[in-house]
Write a structure and sequence with these properties.
There is one protein chain. The chain is built from two helices and four strands, in the order E-H-E-E-H-E. The protein has 74 residues and is of the alpha+beta class. Strand 2 and strand 3 form a beta hairpin. It comes from Faecalibacterium duncaniae (strain DSM 17677 / JCM 31915 / A2-165). One of its GO terms (molecular function) is metal ion binding.
Length: 74
Amino acid sequence: MMKKTYKIEVDCANCAQKMEDAANTVAGVAQATVSFMTQKMKVEFAEGAEPHDTMVNVLAACKKVEDDCEIFDI
């Protein structure tokens, strides 16, 4: 299983939790964790998932709950 860490921009711990919850609903994500303190999102991809395509969908899902969030280097 592939894991990647992404730099994110999120305004508060509550927003980070919302982003984490949203990311975990996306197809291709086995598990996502978001840390407000480190401004990082760790994503474990499901078997056969294409990381770039999956992360485009993760960003879209996160923007639905927190429209000013950002995920870098997708």
